[in-house]
Write a structure and sequence with these properties.
Layout lengths: L1 H19 L3 H10 L6 H9 L5 H48 L5 H14 L3 H9 L2 H11 L3 H14 L3 H9 L2 H6 L8 H16 L7
Helix pairs in contact: 4-5, 5-8, 7-8, 8-11
Length: 213
């Protein structure tokens, strides 16, 4: 009985408002704009509270800002720590996946893998890592079997990004890189193919490797 009496007191103002309004849209707007109609006891309590002074409002706003900055700081610190531990492993996995794409027969996937390796090869540490994973050898295989200029260009561009150190050039010279690069036909449609080819040949030549045909 106590619960029924309480429910009737709470719902009575709302029911009167619903009966007085034939338009449901107007009823919903009234409820949203004037929630005290559904809870007259809460609205009475709010009216009894003294108005807050400007100083109190300023203190509350400052506290909200500090809490917001604290939450942002915690988020960025947590993200930074997670990234520091996680991204190196993720980078190695992406490099390995890119090298795996070079082994697919479809030239499109080969070009995708070569393009990714080009973007990864931004410093000596990553270049060395890619070469140790077999990326340079797979690019050389891709270049030797390429049937179109776009695929040759992607392979040459990736090799151009990888082979910067004397050690890398020496290891690729031992597996016949010079003969493979030299045998790449010149492109009449894309001058960059010839540009990457000449750049690589010059690096071998600067280290006194025989690049003559």
């Amino acid at each position: 009985m106590g619960f029924g009496l309480l429910a009737s007191k709470v719902l009575r103002p709302t029911s009167r408002l619903l009966h007085s309004s034939q338009n449901p849209t107007i009823f919903l707007r009234t409820i949203v704009s004037k929630p005290q109609l559904c809870n007259p006891q809460a609205s009475a309590a709010q009216r009894e509270q003294p108005p807050r002074t400007p100083d109190e409002l300023s203190i509350e706003e400052e506290a909200e800002r500090k809490v917001g900055w604290l939450l942002k700081t915690i988020f960025f610190v947590t993200a930074g720590v997670a990234g520091y531990h996680f991204f190196p492993y993720m980078g190695d996995n992406l490099m390995q996946q890119s090298i795996s794409l070079l082994r697919v027969k479809d030239p499109l996937f080969k070009r995708m893998g070569a393009s990714r390796l080009t973007r990864f090869a931004v410093d000596d540490e990553r270049r060395k890592k890619i070469i140790e994973m077999g990326g340079a050898q797979e690019l050389l295989n891709m270049l030797s079997t390429a049937k179109d200029d776009r695929t040759r260009k992607a392979a040459l561009q990736a090799l151009d990004a990888l082979l910067h150190s004397d050690e890398a050039l020496a290891s690729m010279h031992q597996v016949g890189a010079v003969s493979v690069i030299r045998s790449v036909p010149n492109s009449l449609e894309d001058a960059e193919v010839e540009g990457f080819k000449l750049s690589l040949m010059k690096r071998f030549q600067d280290l006194r490797y025989d690049v003559s045909s």
